[in-house]
Amino acid sequence: MNEHSSWRGVQYLDTGWVGIAFTMMLVLFILFNIKRAGKNQNLFIRRIAGLNAIDEAIGRATEMGRPVLMVPGIGDLNAISVQALNIFAYVSKTAARFSSPIRLCCGNAAVFTVAQEIIRDAYQQEGMVDRYDPDSVRFLSDRQFAFAASVSGLILREKAAAAFFLGEFFAESLIFAETANSVGAIQIASSTQSTQTPFFIAACDYVLIGDEFYAASAYLTRKPVLVGSLIGQDWSKMAVGGLVLLGAIGLTVQMGVFSPKTISRTAQDTVDVPTTISVVAKKDGPYAPYEQAIGTTVHTFALKKGQVEESDVPLTEDGQKVPMIAPRVITAGDTDVMRLFKPQKDKTVSVLREQIDKPPKDQIVPGTDVPEEDK
Amino acid sequence: MLFAQVQKSFWNEESGSSALYIKLILALVVGFATMALLLRMPPRGRRAVVVGITFLSGLFYVAFYLWPKPLPGVDGTGAPLDPAKPRDFVEYVGFYLKDALPIVADFSNILSTFLLGLGVFSIIRIHGRKLIRRQTDWGFSLVLMFSVLLMVVVGYINYWQTHYGPDPSKLELPRNWSFVQYANDLLFNGLLQQMDAAMFSLIAFYILSAAYRAFRIRSVEATILLATALIVIFSLMGVVAFFWDKGVNGISGATTGGIAGNFTLTEVYTWIKQNVQDPSIRAIDFGVGIGALAMGLRLWLSLERGGASA
Question: CB–CB of B225/B214 below 8 Å?
Fold first, then answer.
């Protein structure tokens, strides 16, 4: 496979292949454990308080004769909303057993149709399909704050005794949580948006944080496939943790433990490149042909939007930057670097670069000469 | 351009061409035939079809992720290549996947559009019944039904006039607006947007009440939370941060590398953000990402069966 082989896709250039290989490893972890869990039925899952509280919340609603409210977020039909609906199916089954009324409010039409099917199935599995009210699953609005207003109105009018907010929530999360709190509802919440989790923690009784949300169906049903998948997730988390640790150690060593190196200079240069020579950030000069750059360390490389054509450099999805390149020493025959750093003929290329140097011991390195917003 | 977006592919045809109409009719026939087949099939067979379609749909994205995306157009000697022509089978498939991506993404948009009709039907059914039977709060339902109707009628007439009317470009200027444009502006910008903003602004008050409950000192954790929150709040209050930092910087050695320099509000806030907040969020995001990957795998391979995996 030569440098220009069609098998060397853009996504595999430089360190791109590492991410793909790592993802594949995580996939294998999950699939292997799903297969493994089929044989071993006694796998341990730690206690999750929010999930233990589900039955308590439904019991309370039954005692008070008020409905159980469920909201699967305002996201599209995706893995998150399907997971939320899976948990709601369990809630609905329990509610069906106690004849507690339920209200499932959807802000997305696709989620609504799937929710109808799942909740009807849940009642059917309990042998209580006659208790299923088609109006208990409702589509309210696909506008964020119209949906927020509708759900809040419903909570206030029907005085929900238990509220489950599980899924993809954004700014409306606190409106729901505070409204439900104002009517005294017991609340169990989880958002896959880490920005909303603090709001839920502040306002709700129980919160499933992060991947506890995905652990819920395994925890509630103890199905081997789900428990195996959960163990695969744990393996994956350990692998990610290990990699983070390795990265931290590597970076510490690279930056120097006892004689720390710092980013000594950040500069933005506009370079007219008349030929197809490769350019790299060089230690002692602005830019140099590839041959002269051998032995230097490249730290970062980013192109400003609109200054190069898409065909010059493999761009990321947002079209703004080439993938960040890990600090590396350029060696002779380093063709990937050469390709990534090759600008088009006669094009002006603006390059933001940082250099790692050892600062002179007796000298404080001057500040940056690049405005903060341009970095 | 690098990729073959401008090139005619399996997925596109010239506008108005007979080939386009033939493809459209074929797609409709296949769609209706599939739907009819699914409806007539026994549940077990239907499930097999759904599993198959789910797998194929997911396979497309997996292939798009893994299949080598064509490199910038250079041949073995580094000379530029014609970007519209794939060199070999690998690049041909790469171009094909790239061309097909927006089309495949549109499939889900089209499905969602169909489903939106079901959502609107649900609204009309629930509130229509409430209205007819004069159930509790039927007045709200009346307002909702009237609003939906008004918005739809005005919105469609406005859309038609501004896109297909006698002189659509003329309507870009407010002085040429008719009653419909004014009505649309009032309903959308004057009412709907403002009500959205009103709901959004409520969050400020809710934050206050939620923060009051969260920051009450009940335990060690709540106390730490309160102290951290106060530091962050104060560091974002310009006047407080200015005077605090000024006071700290007045301590001997604070500005020349002394230990006191670490206790300015901005330094402490930055430390909290970089060493406590960001790593925690990243750790949570790792877990969420891996959970989504596992869930996606189970859905793609149809290992997830029924609600609550029943």
Answer: yes
Distance from CA of A121 to the nearest CA of B (A): 7
Per-residue tokens: B158: 């406005």
User: In this predicted model, what pLDDT tens digit does every residue of B234-270 receive, in sequence order?
Assistant: 999 989 999 998 888 888 777 777 788 888 898 899 9
Q: How close B71 comes to chain A (CA, Å)? A: 5
Q: Which residues of chain A have pLDDT under 70?
A: 1-5, 40-41, 256, 258-375
pTM of the predicted protein model: 0.77
From the list A139, A202, A203, the residue facing B123 with the nearest CB is: A139
Q: Which residues contact A61 (CB under 8 A, 6 or more apart)?
A: A67, A68, A95, A100, A160, A161, A162
Is B122 within 8 Å of A142 when comparing Cβ atoms?
no
Q: Which of the residue ranges A18-22, A251-255, B119-123, B129-133 would you say has the lowest mean pLDDT? A: A251-255
Strand partners, A354: A266
